[in-house]
Amino acid sequence: MKFTELPLSEEVLAGIDKAGYADCTLVQETVLPISLTGKDVMVQSKTGSGKTAVYLLTILEKYSRNSSSAALIVSPTRELAVQIEEDAKILSAGFPDYRIGCFYGGVGYKEQSAELSSGLNLYVGTPGRLLDFAKSNKLDFRCFDTVVLDEADRMFDMGFYPDVQSMFAQMRKSEERQTMLFSATLSTKVRNLAWKYMSEPEEIAVQPEEITVKKITQELFHVTKAEKFQLLLSILKKQNPASCLIFTNTKDMAVEVAKRLVMNGYKAEYLMGDMPQTKRLKTIDRMKEGKLPILVATDVAARGLQIDDLELVVNYDIPEDFESYVHRIGRTARAGKSGKAITLACEEYIYGLEPIENYIQMKIPVVWPDEVGLEKVDDKSAGFHYHSRRPQQKRAERSGERRRNSSRKPGKPAPRKNSGYEKPAQENEKEYAKLSRMSLEERMEYYRSEFGGDDAKKPAKSPIQRNAQRTQQKKAADNKKKPQPSKPQSEAVKRPQPAKPMEGHTAEVKSARKGIFARIKAKFFGE
Ligand code: ADP
Ligand code: MG
Q: Which of 201, 209, 226, 436 has the smallest C-beta neighbourhood within 10 Å, fewest atoms?
């Protein structure tokens, strides 16, 4: 579709000419006919598809009909704000009097403040600085008849949700303005915001960002929380990645893992959401330059920043939000390259696994440490833990938690997010208790003997395997004296083989995996 086929004024078309655009991109030809009528739109389209022109042309066309129209574009970063301003300058070439201002943190407040008071047609800015100006009465959010939220997903990743809410709260009613939201992904959070602050928005998805998990080699290890770090060391030793991003679910764990890696001789740093952006960007740059091989981060800290082309992504903790899994592992295997994502499933976060697998519509292949040749590495940081809060504070929090939780029926497990929790059979209780006392090797051996099928009998090769074999022999001797534990219902089912990504998983494999879930859940939360 040509731009001339759209209901655009001469002046707006002149700007398009100046930009050198002739044909609309897909998102432009899909959204412009709707946004030009003044309707609210929520648009999902992949990066680089031409979203900027969609809202800029809508704003400019509105201005051509009403020169007192004022628009606001909110951007998550200063770099993007500057880019939008540049594009706006070009596309508004047909309106010599059109005035644009750009407002972001980290630079002189005075000049920007002077610009504000002179009255503008288009305001582009980052949430923090815009709110600052509103606070000092230099900016009134009620003046805008058009509001654009660009890169809404990144806005959230960077923790701007409260700021965005605060801005919307100061604006005129949603029916009295046009609100346009643009994002590369429309997550639940983004949709929630749209429902809250937009007026019957039309949801338009064109060229969604591909879920790239298909190209990524995924692996999943079952491991206890206590042995996770040990396993991580083994993985890093084996993979020796040039660049590796490790995700944890909490800030404390990010610091702990990074510090423990340093104690073990690795060059590693951590990234947290509440660090100043300049500091975070510097760390990322060092990683891009190859000076920093390992970075440990929480989702909030990493998602707003462009860290691509990683050799390895490790989910030290399974994310509690299933969409995060895709965001995390999507940082490897960019641009057709092969990449690897390793996930450590421990008892604390295993609940997140089923929702993730449902979302990506595949089972993450389970691998066993000895199968992939992992060897135990001496952990020089053994016993080290990091807590940002003081012990008394933690104790107080914990006792508060106990009080809150005491309203639950005794013995009943706490309701868990995404748990899909099913109460396990009582008769396996002793078996779970036994499982919880096992070491990593012993448990792997146990899983193998329970779910392993024929290859459980293969001769051991690695030290872990040899160790496991010894344990098994010892166990067998012990078991002669004791009655055998009851077999799980999935006895006949073979352990899932490390499948190729997207290879179909059969119902049997699923039920075998469920058996493992039930055991691990029951072990820690069951009656
Ligand atoms: P997005 O915001 O979707 O990531 P942008 O709006 O930044 O993408 O556009 C990506 C690039 O495509 C920019 O360089 C822009 O100038 C260019 N572009 C946008 N629309 C057109 C068009 N209709 N014809 C040619 N190039 C375009
Ligand atoms: Mg954009």
A: 226
Cα–ligand 2 centroid distance for 152 (angstroms): 10
Going from N- to C-terminal start, the domains of the chain cover: 3-206, 211-388+420-457
Contact at 8 Å (CB) between 100 and 172?
no
- For residues 422 and 429, what is the distance between their CA atoms, to the nearest angstrom? 15
Atom of ligand 1 nearest to the CA of 46: 3
Taking the domain 3-206, which CATH number applies?
3.40.50.300
CA distance 232 to 316: 8
Q: Which residues line ligand 1 (CB under 6 A)?
A: 21, 23-25, 28, 45, 47-53
Class of CATH domain 211-388+420-457: alpha beta
Cα dihedral 246, 252, 258, 262, rounded to 10, equals -160
Which residue type, as a one-letter code, is found at position 349?
A: Y
Q: 211-388+420-457: same fold as 3-206?
A: yes
- CA 154 / ligand 2 centre spacing (Å): 11
Instruction: Report d(CA 36, CA 494) in Å as an integer.
Output: 58
Q: Cα Rg for the chain, rounded, in angstroms?
A: 27
Residue-wise pLDDT tens digits, 109-166: 777 887 887 789 999 999 999 999 999 899 999 999 999 999 998 887 777 888 999 9
The CA 28 to ligand 1 mean position distance, Å, reads 9
Closest residue CA from atom 9 of ligand 1: 50
Which residue, 223, 211, 162, is CA-closest to 186?
211
Per the listing, tokens 């610091």 go with 255
Whole-angstrom distance, CA of residue 265 vs CA of residue 120: 55
Q: Is the overall model pTM greater than 0.85, yes or no?
A: no
Which residue from 4, 18, 25, 148 has its CB within 8 A of the most atoms of ligand 1, so it is best to mutate? 25
